[in-house]
Amino acid sequence: LTSSDDSCRVEEVDVIEAAWEHVAHRDGDVCTVSLSGELDMSAASDVTQALDREIRRSGTEAVRVDLSAVTFLDSSAIGVLVTAQRSAHAAARQFTVTGAHGHVRRVLDVTGVLSVLTGEQPPGR
Amino acid sequence: VVYTAGLAAVHDMDIGYGIDLDDLDPQHDLTSSGGSYDPDRQHAGVLLKAGDGLAKTSHPGGFRALRDTAPLALGYPRVTVTVSSMVRPKPAGSEAIGMAQLPLPVLGVDDGPLVRGFTVQDLSEVRHAVQAYAERVGLGGESLDDFVVAVHELVTNAVRHGGGSGQVHVRSGGDSVLCDVTDSGPGFAGGIPDVGGEPPPAQTPGGRGLWLARLLTDTLLITDGPGGVTVSVTACLPDTRGLSLAVMEPAVTNTERSVSKPIRSEGDGR
């Protein structure tokens, strides 16, 4: 094994804290959760909790997740949304995703989850 | 040019001119050309190259799957298949034939490669560094976003399944930008996964990372080596030589075929 090019130059890295935010807006029995920023693996468990909280809140009939201000989304975040939609349906709540645009929309689209998450297509088996 | 920094058995096989992959019997053509390719064995990567040296697609599941899912050789005058075999487990006393540590193609790069280690805390930082680098060497628009997401997925995989840390190595290879993401984890317990087919069902929470990385890049090569897994992805840079792909259309045509992934032949208007 020659490793001529593997002189691992690890640079000093500043940890970026909480590159995302969420705001929940409740209007009657509809709750809109607006997410913003970059949703990756490090945000996954907190976003899951935030969505779960709204799904389980008594009096909520529908949860809408607004992705208008999300600038990055990865497969971990897709997993979060898919799981949250399943929990919502299990709890007899509506759950839809809105506002996905640009590359966020592309990622949701190519992975085949966009139409299910937006409610345009009913969840499969 | 073979894009792997990992230890892999690599064999280049010239399989013909103006070839239509549908007409190709992989067993016959590949073995008769002197290669070591076994269509029934899972190989780490199969890289399909056109005559201009640009890698167009690859498939870790093997040539059959590649032929079924990526009819991208159509339109190119010369096709080479590169087979990169898994080297783990490495049999004791195995022959050295075909084993190669390939030099990394770093052609005409002014500012050198981006090499950076990472752990779970560095996901965002690494992502932005990769984005800045890829943009600097000429990637833009959707291609840039695609590449950044792909590399990020590989980094996330390394953190999650590859021992919690790893290293990215990004460089420009003249006509493409390349990135190796290396971890020191246990590798794939069930063999190299097949990421060339349909996406996981919409109801499945996970399993999209590698699949997404494959979809969003021009090539993806998985090397499951003794020290860990290296996944290498490439994205072709916009053609700055003014050479249209139409020039390379073969004289003999049989082109009523849908190409699953259009080749980008134009720049992004930049």
Can you tell me about this structure?
The complex is a heterodimer of chains A (125) and B (270). Chain A is an alpha/beta fold and 125 residues long. Chain A has four helices and four strands; from the N terminus they run E-E-H-E-H-E-H-H. In chain A, strand 1 and strand 2 form a beta hairpin. The relative contact order of chain A is 0.15. Chain B is α+β, with helices and mostly antiparallel strands and 270 residues long. Helices cover 21% and strands 25% of the residues of chain B. In chain B, the strands form two sheets. Chain B has a five-stranded antiparallel beta sheet, with no helix packed on it. In chain B, strands 6-7-8-10-9 form a five-stranded antiparallel beta sheet, with helices on one face. The interface between A and B is large, with 38 and 41 residues.
Low-pLDDT residue intervals, each spanning 5 or more residues of chain B: 1-110, 241-270
* Strand composition percent of chain A: 25-35%
Q: How would you write the strand order of the largest sheet of chain B?
A: 3-2-4-1-5
Helix/strand order of chain A, N-terminal first: EEHEHEHH
| Count of runs of 4 or more consecutive helical residues of chain B | 5
Number of helices of chain A: 4
Structural class of chain A: alpha/beta
Strand order of the largest sheet of chain A: 1-2-3-4
Number of strands of chain A: 4
Rg result of chain A: 17 Å
| Main sheet: strands, sense, barrel of chain B | 5 strands, antiparallel
The proportion of residues forming helix of chain B, as a percent range, comes to: 10-25%
The proportion of residues forming helix of chain A, as a percent range, comes to: 25-40%
Spatial extent as radius of gyration of chain B:
18 Å
Distance between the termini of chain A: 49 Å
What multimeric state do the chains show? heterodimer
Q: Which regions of chain A contain 5 or more consecutive residues with pLDDT less than 50?
A: 1-16
Biggest sheet overview of chain A: 4 strands, mixed
What letter string, H or E per element, gives the SSE order of chain B? EHEEHEEEHHEEHEE
